[in-house]
TrEMBL record:
The chain crosses the membrane at residues 51-71. Residues 96-125 are annotated as: Disordered. It comes from the Bacteria. It comes from Oceanobacillus profundus. Keywords: Membrane, Transmembrane, Transmembrane helix. This is Negative regulator of sigma-X activity.
Length: 393
């Protein structure tokens, strides 16, 4: 708004100026002015010519002064960068070397452990392969003098037969009164010897054994305890042909009551392994067939520390013919001559004996020989189980 007012004032003032008329011809006016315009342009041009070299010279001087400083800084920065890069590379190299060395050490250590473990495993396998296999029976043709003992398992569920092999000069009847000396409950992991302090007198003519129990002897309530007591006596004396036990002062058998004598007999049983050390007879019901008993031998009873005697991968077909029990291996069956198979053969032999068989014939066996047993021929059932050799002691 103010700008317009000033403009109007200027226009009004100009209008008040006196009118001047110039009668000079335009061409004359131009001819007068042209030379001055050219001179003015030449002066400006000269001034520009003079100014440009000065400015250029000044800029060059400044650049010359600045460039060394820039180059110096660049060199310093480059040197610092190179130094830092070298340090970083050195650190990375050292770290990587450390990792590599550590990794190599770990691999070497792990390799050492693996080698040691493999060596130990190999040594164990070699030791197992070289260790003689343990027989759990006394063969029918083995000569010697035997005393038959018995103990209960740690949970008082089963009776474990023990056959002591003694010198021929030993009085068997007298040895029965010393049995407690040779029973090792702790190392065998068995219950306390139930007949501790009892004395025995054999009457082989009448097939009787006279027993005098320790004073105050009594069984705890429960049919199992009475059954264990009965089966222990049967295990100890029926191999000698004894059929009856006579208690001189009677016997308090808990739930059964007070008795003076007892008929001795052994139930049919299938054989498994107790504590990986003893063959143990597992009583069966009278309705159980030999086929069912053989099948049951492949089952564990871990709650009683009882393990199977027929491996899972062994398949057997069972047939019987009179006193001969035949077992046929399935086709493509794989067997090794090792402790497990030896234990299987002997457990089957003892089971067959318990069921009244006299011989066992293995058919289609992939092995002809297992330890001392020729599987291609009938094998006689053993005379006893779990031998403990006391000769030369």
């Amino acid at each position: 708004m103010r700008h317009n007012e000033e403009y109007d004032k200027i226009i009004a003032s100009l209008k008040q100026l006196p009118v001047v008329k110039d009668k000079m011809d335009k061409s004359d006016l131009y001819s007068r002015i042209s030379p001055k315009l050219k001179d003015s342009q030449n002066v400006k041009s000269k001034r520009k010519v003079k100014v440009v070299p000065i400015l250029a010279t000044a800029m060059v001087a400044v650049l010359l002064a600045i460039i060394p400083f820039i180059l110096n800084n660049s060199s310093t920065q480059q040197a610092d960068y190179s130094m830092n890069l070298d340090v970083a590379n050195t650190y990375d190299y050292m770290e990587e070397s450390g990792k590599t060395e550590s990794s190599n050490e770990q691999e070497a250590h792990s390799g050492g452990i693996a080698d040691d473990s493999q060596e130990e495993s190999t040594e164990t396998r070699v030791a197992m392969d070289e260790a003689p296999m343990q027989s759990h029976i006394i063969s029918a043709d083995e000569a010697g003098t035997f005393v038959y003992g018995a103990v209960a398992d740690a949970q008082n569920q089963y009776v474990i037969p023990i056959t002591f092999i003694v010198e021929d000069s030993v009085n068997v009847a007298a040895f029965y009164n010393q049995l407690a000396t040779y029973i090792h409950e702790d190392s065998w992991n068995t219950a306390e010897y139930l007949l501790e302090g009892a004395s025995f007198e054999l009457n082989e003519v009448d097939k009787e054994v006279f027993i005098e129990l320790e004073n105050g002897f009594t069984l705890e309530e429960g049919s199992t305890n009475a059954y264990i007591f009965e089966q222990m006596l049967a295990t100890m004396f029926t191999p000698l042909g004894i059929e009856k036990a006579v208690f001189k002062n009677g016997a308090d058998l808990g739930s059964i009551g007070f008795i003076k004598e007892m008929v001795l007999y052994q139930d049919e049983a299938l054989y498994k392994l107790y504590n990986n050390e003893f063959l143990i007879p597992i009583p069966t019901s009278k309705e159980l067939s030999i086929e069912e008993a053989i099948a049951e031998m492949s089952q564990n009873k871990p709650e009683f520390n009882v393990s199977r005697t027929i491996p899972d991968d062994v398949q057997l077909e069972v047939q019987s013919s009179g006193s001969l029990l035949e077992l046929t291996f399935a086709d493509e069956q794989v067997l090794l001559d090792n402790q497990d198979i030896l234990t299987m053969v002997e457990a089957i032999l003892m089971t067959a004996k318990s069921f009244g068989f006299e011989e066992v014939q293995f058919q289609n066996s992939p092995l002809q020989q297992v330890s001392e047993y020729n599987l291609s021929k009938p094998i006689s059932v053993p005379s006893a189980a779990n031998p403990v050799d006391l000769r030369d002691e």
